[in-house]
Amino acid sequence: MGQKVNSNIFRLGLKNNLQWKFKYIEKSFEDSTLFIYKNFRIQNYLKQILILNGLLLHNYKIWYSETNITIYISYYVSTATKLSFNKNSDELKLLFDQILICVKLFFKKTCITRFKIKSQNLNEKYKNNLEAIFQKRIEKLRKFKNNTIFKELLYITLIATVEETSSKLLAEFIAVQFQKIKKRHGFFLSILKATLLQLIKSKLSKITGIKLTIKGRFNGALRANQKIIQIGSIPLQSVNIKINFSHSVAFTKNGTFGIKLWICEK
Fold this sequence. Notes:
The protein has 266 residues and is of the alpha/beta class. It has 9 helices and 8 strands. It folds into 2 domains: 2-123, 2-Layer Sandwich (GMP Synthetase, Chain A, domain 3); 128-265, Ribosomal protein S3 C-terminal domain (2-Layer Sandwich), CATH 3.30.1140. It has helices at residues 7-10, 29-52, 90-106, 122-126, 129-133, 135-139, 150-162, 167-180, 185-200; strands at residues 22-23, 55-64, 68-77, 114-121, 207-216, 225-232, 242-252, 255-265. The strands form 2 sheets. It has a 4-stranded mixed β-sheet with strand order 1-2-3-4. A hairpin with a 2-residue loop joins strand 7 (242-252) and strand 8. Helix 7 runs antiparallel to helix 8 and helix 7 runs parallel beside helix 9. It is globular.
């Protein structure tokens, strides 16, 4: 039954110090259900607006108080974006201003008056340092260098092996790629598996195991099929093991692909 339980909720408040991604102060039972609903709506909005601007959501946190809201967003700038997202970019400020305006609408009839966004750009955090650190491992993947997907796939998998709680970023990236790729899904997964095999073996990797399950109509087949990629060990029923879980959905012309990803961290 371990694979049917949300690994993040299953380990909340235990030795690994996992915490909820949103915190609030409730005054009644109605406040609790309302805050949970609004958090769900804000999460979906953040995911959609970032994807529309060529960004992938890595992590988010929301803290509520009686009068304040603070939103923390960690994101990755993909090659699909046509905007300039430098640290002091006007386009970046306009995007976060738009997010703030929409978030205010969710709390229009409440006493919350102060809204603040803190953001982290993973591209600026790591830049080209990761490729130099994992150079020996990357050299073994030189046969994929001519592939157009490989460069971005490599960079995202590098971030996933070093940055904590990166299952959402990797799952969203796979979903976006499946929306673009009409066929040859197996070839994309073979590149992904070969890349993860090399990076996880490194001593600098913070990952001990990874499991990926994708279910859908691969290559436009008439019936849905399931493919599983597992590297290392994933002890889902061991409570003390730190496992980061995320799921995503890719909407295509041939139907939807359900993507589930488990990452076991050191």
